[in-house]
Amino acid sequence: MEKKLNKNLFLKISNFLVCLLPLALITGPAIPDFIVILSSIFFFIYLLNSKFDLIADKKFLFLLSLFYFLLVFSSLFSEYIWISLRFSLPYIRFIILAFLIAYLIKNNKYLFYRYFFISCSIALLILFFDSTFQFYNEKNLLGFVSPVTGRIGSVFKDELILGSYALKISPMFFTTIFALNINVKNKKKLFFIIYFIVFYIILISGDRAPLFLFSLYSVILFYLLKPYRISFLIVIIFSLSFFIIFLSFSKITYNRFITQTINELGFGESDYTKKALNINDNENSLYRSNKKNLFSAIHENYFITGLNIFKDNYLIGAGPKSFSQLSKLEKYAVDRFSYINHPHNFYIQLLAETGIAGFGFVFLFFFYLVAKYFTILNLYKKNTAKFELLIAGISMSGLIFHLWPVISTGSFFTNYNCILIYMCLGFFLGEKSTNYK
């Protein structure tokens, strides 16, 4: 009886803490990180008492533990050992967070999803009204002004992650909608409303990478949501029409998404990068007039710098968080613009900071997720009555765009990205353990 009471108390406290995270993430880094640390310690003690029998997927625990020890091992051999170890040693808290979420889903699924839905709803509504106010008034409701023209920071102030947050919280939000104890018709309406709100926030944020990834995620969802394809297609067409109309009325947004993109890819204004960065003719050929780029010239600079670091540290990398120090060195830097905290791509960062070993872990996991996506499509095709497969597919497919390789990103090792990735992983592991093998 006492054990049952302890379990109920643990579930209540853990539910409360984890479900606060979507709201906490919009307050800044301190509160969400405190919640992750507290809930991870709490769960770890609970696991020790149960001798880790509560972990449903021991294979994932083993693999993620290997990844953790690889990060620590890489840090121990880093030139900047204390900078690297300060991040890698407590990295275990994110892995524990993922298994805690999986445990909550397995043991108290509908209660967890209901609280998580409420937290996401409040966070998204705050961002919707605040970002709209800032878009039309240049400052948000608290008086913060964006440091970059064409970008909206909202409550994130000068940290321009509004579009990224809306994108990365969406797969978990969508999962909770389809898991709610309401009729299918209302789930469908709710999903499409939230889908459009997420799209709208990403659009006015001026953040191009999340817009591309949300478009990719929409394609993934379109094939997954077989019962709703016609309705979903109508919503997508409506969103595209809204996008075109919005661009035609907003010159700033048009310049950000269209003009600037064309110029940075080398198909527009001559010497655009040189003028934007005040570069003289004697500097690097990356910025030569109308050079065609897959990304912007400045992003290519970061990528080359990362690969230069990788060449000297190809096996276990230079250590997590070391890029910011090594990019200052002449033997790695392309030029003065190379000095940056991270190379703006997860996989190039993993190559530079964790070598082939760390890169291989994440890249192979990405292909595993793609294979699982097609497995779920086939399973769902054979049994469309099994609604749980749909929920599992939505939670899992969110990880695909989290780890999409060909895109500019933030740092793989920021607390913000780690929390969101491992939260999404927790949803995937929770659904994996309950709905399909």
List keywords for this structure.
437 residues; mainly alpha; 17 helices; globular
Strand-and-helix sequence, N→C? HHHHHHHHHHHHHHHHH
SS strand fraction: under 5%
Number of domains: 1
Q: Which whole number gives the mean pLDDT?
A: 88
Shape: globular
Supply the helix-strand structural class.
mainly alpha
Helix content: over 70%
Describe the overall structure:
It is a single chain. The model has no long low-confidence stretch (mean pLDDT 88). The protein is 70% helix and 0% strand. The protein has 17 helices and no strands. It has one domain (2-261, 340-435). With 437 residues, it is mainly alpha-helical. The chain is globular. The longest helix has 46 residues, at 92-137. α13 (297-312) crosses α15 and α15 (346-382) runs antiparallel to α16.
Question: What is the structure about, briefly put?
Answer:
The protein is 70% helix and 0% strand. It has 437 residues and is mainly alpha-helical.
Which helices and strands, and how do they pair?
Elements: H1 2-19, H2 21-24, H3 30-50, H4 58-76, H5 81-88, H6 92-137, H7 162-179, H8 184-205, H9 208-224, H10 229-249, H11 251-264, H12 272-277, H13 297-312, H14 323-326, H15 346-382, H16 387-402, H17 415-435
Helix pairs in contact: 1-3, 1-6, 3-6, 4-5, 4-15, 6-7, 6-8, 6-17, 7-8, 7-16, 7-17, 8-10, 9-16, 10-11, 13-15, 15-16, 16-17
